[in-house]
Amino acid sequence: MAQNAGYTAAIVNDNEDGGILVAMEGNSAEGSQFDANHYDTKMNELLAIDGQEFFAAYDEVHDSFDAMGLQENLMRDIYAYDFERPSTIQQRGIVPFCNGLDVIQQAQSGTGKTTTFCSRILQQL
Ligand SMILES: Nc1ncnc2c1ncn2[C@@H]1O[C@H](COP(=O)(O)OP(=O)(O)OP(=O)(O)O)[C@@H](O)[C@H]1O
């Protein structure tokens, strides 16, 4: 973990294999460039493999949401969305972020970054 004059950063760089990229255009409804199924398909692929190449300045890994010490309402919502296990970057980013550290995550689209940051916000409510 990098610490400098009160600044703490947990940096996670998740470069999963390049085969994850799915052409969106073929899946999009006519007239729309957004296809939610694209994200869900890609997330299922990501959850099926372990991160091979990543650099994490924070070395704790929580491979289940149960192990993260999240508040009950948030846990209920996570499971209500059928999130069974955290993605690679979520395993390394949610806990330090919820513990008040500054977290920078760099990863491909659809790997769970937004969910990480929303978890911190919802954990605080
Ligand atoms: N642990 C999980 N299990 C199953 N689905 C998940 C999980 N985490 C996130 N998702 C779903 O995967 C999709 C992508 O997640 P998210 O938006 O957090 O990724 P992202 O890295 O922020 O993407 P982008 O860079 O495009 O904004 C969303 O539909 C989200 O609901």
TrEMBL record:
Q: Which GO terms label this protein's molecular function in UniProt?
A: ATP binding; DNA binding; DNA topoisomerase type II (double strand cut, ATP-hydrolyzing) activity; hydrolase activity; RNA binding; RNA helicase activity
Q: What is this protein called?
A: ATP-dependent RNA helicase
EC top class, in one word?
A: hydrolase
Q: Which domain of life is it from?
A: Eukaryota
> Which SUPFAM superfamilies does the protein's record reference?
P-loop containing nucleoside triphosphate hydrolases
**Record EC number:** 3.6.4.13
Q: Which family does it belong to?
A: Belongs to the DEAD box helicase family.
Key word Ion transport present in the record?
no
The role this protein plays is: RNA helicase.
What is stated about domains? The Q motif is unique to and characteristic of the DEAD box family of RNA helicases and controls ATP binding and hydrolysis.
Output the GO biological process annotations, alphabetical, semicolon-separated: DNA topological change
UniProt keywords (A-Z) are: ATP-binding, Helicase, Hydrolase, Nucleotide-binding, RNA-binding
